[in-house]
Specification:
With 306 residues, the protein is α+β, with helices and mostly antiparallel strands. The chain is 37% helix and 26% strand.
Length: 306
Amino acid sequence: MKWILQHRAASIITLGIALSIAVVVAFAPSTWPTMMARSFLPQWIAAFCLVAMWLLWKKRWREGVLTSCGALLLWPQLPDAVHQVIGDGPQLRAAHFNVLQSNEAYEGVIRTMLLAAADVISVQEVDPEWAAALIEGLSASYPHHVIAAHTNCYGIALFSRVPLIDAHVVHLGASPAIDAHVAIGSRRVHLIAAHTSSPGSPGHFSARNHQFELLRDHVRASTEPVIVIGDLNATPWDKDLQRLLAATGLRTHADVYDPTFPSELHMALIPIDHVLAPAGISVAQHSVHLPGSDHRGLVAEIGFAR
């Protein structure tokens, strides 16, 4: 860094590269490389801010101001947090847990699930071993359940204290999802528990976006309010997730200050687990540590108008 500051040409080139990165991350169309870069938008903003402060401390005013411009380009890309107060209408307490298929901390995970005291629990990465553990540990408190166990990290389950109506497994591309209705007070609510593909390669990125299209059609076809809960493998500022939200009228309540993945030492980097709900339905959610998993869990209070 010192060498760069001492050489005018190197300084100009470095600043040009940095600002080009900011422009690409902020405004480039959604492709696999730009999606991967945008996923860590808060970290990019923090990096630009730290470098700008260091440059200004070194009294490199021009470089510091230009680096600050990179942060200012990126900051508006973060969506506004949706903070809602739960009213006095009917409520549903929902929880979501990606348990990590290879995780063998069955007892600790199930204890965390029970402590959440949710009405419905969505569980992801359910293989046959996890299915058996969940049935044994949850059935007494959650007698209603649907399970699609798989060994490819996309097995899924939905457990409920209240009866599940018309509950069944649907397929979003190659991944199963669970479609069910529950009665909340005098109304029925449509629940979809989903786990879309992890976009770790261009092919999986395309598969995830196709699943968003299938999920969009599924939500649009419903005649009742839809709640989507699950690991959608997308941040709230992901352009393709934003297209899904715009097409369905759903909103995410994921918080940049309460990320869920990857979970290390009770901390995480980005929020990719979501509770999606339409306008008029309030959601207050928070994450919880999940023993042995690479995700934090979510617990959400979902409120409905009277």
